[in-house]
Amino acid sequence: MSGRDRTGATWSNWTGDRSCEPRDLVRPGSLRELSEVVADGAAAGRQITVAGSGHSFTGAAMTGDLMLDVGVLSGVIEADRGSGLVRVGGGTVLADLNSELDRLGLAMPNLGDIDRQTISGAISTATHGTGADLPNIPAQVEAIELVGPDGEVRKLNATETPELLRAARVGVGSLGVITAVTLRTIPSFNLHRIDAPMPLDDVLDDFDRFAGENQHFEFFIFPHTETALTIRRNRTGRPPAPRGRLERYLSDVVIENALGDLALRATGRVPSAIPRTARFSSNFMAQAEQVDVSHRVFANHRSIRFTEMEFALPRQAAPEALLRVLDLIRTERFPLAMPIECRVVAGDDALLSPTHERESAYLAIHQYRGLEWRPWFEAIEEIFDSYDGRPHWGKRHSQDATTLAPRYPEWDRFQAARDELDPDRVFTNDYVRKVLGP
Description:
By secondary structure, the protein is of the alpha+beta class. It contains 14 helices and 20 strands. It folds into two domains: 78-187, Uridine Diphospho-n-acetylenolpyruvylglucosamine Reductase, domain 3 (2-Layer Sandwich); 190-398, 3-Layer(aba) Sandwich (Vanillyl-alcohol Oxidase, Chain A, domain 3), CATH 3.40.462.
């Protein structure tokens, strides 16, 4: 074990509603040390998980045994500007990666609206951005290096190990410790973002057109309201024209997060006020516009803590499914005050990607931290189930291996890869056993 061991430490996620006390929390100081810790742990029959930044709402990283923090393996290791191939450490946080790529004149073609995850955590849970023609972050991966139970580093790529790479792109932490990822990047670019409130009926009537005409399209809708905030992002040759510092502070920090946090606390104490508060909050939706470097337009400032459920549905089912969810919340008076998010994502070929071989739309349901969520989420999940929905691996859901297997055409191929890379199930925990099986 490392001199950086912490015995009896408590680990918790970003929201603070998932925590565990690993028997050992180890932060190896080098790749060699990591290999030794993994090999020794496997030989001793330990169960090993890796903690990223904790931006997951599931138990994906939780354990009562051996938890690893690979933050030492971070940063750009090598970059080829000509090919756009960039090799980065598995513990690299996306915000830091984006800054380093920007200095190199490079960028990731698609990102989510949160940049606090590590790259290994993001791909392991199939984190995504938005875009009808743009797949998720794992689809940008050209190669993966991971430490197996024997402590050896195995390099997976599309030429020599295509099937294993397709498995490891979205492995839910079950295949080994990701030490490095090779990404396919593109030259840096600016995005033109337009925020525009619109009647929800108009958005849903023209859903396919909005998705097709914009490189990145999404929208938010508060329950009990009829106005959606549409967000359109498109590449542009225009020079950056970011919002001013004061405008950004007032909008992101004061109005959206500080006042939003106060409103959500109030509705938690008085749930009957949710419809009125939602209508009041929707009045703050305003027309806005900015041009800036892509990663600064993709990412949003988030200080409100919440828990979340998100499912990928067939894209054509999203409008109907959303209306059913909103109707259920309204008629059953579910105490859900936070907006619902809808994003479109292209299909990809990772074996366990929620968008595997399917053009998809994600619907995300949120609940403010500390408030009850399970009965409301599970009732909405039944709607998602009726469309063969696939849950985001890092967000709340009640699915298990028996319900998930039929939703993934290549489930058995993933299990074969798992048998090859981790036959003794060293890299597992309760969540992995539940969703992937023993």
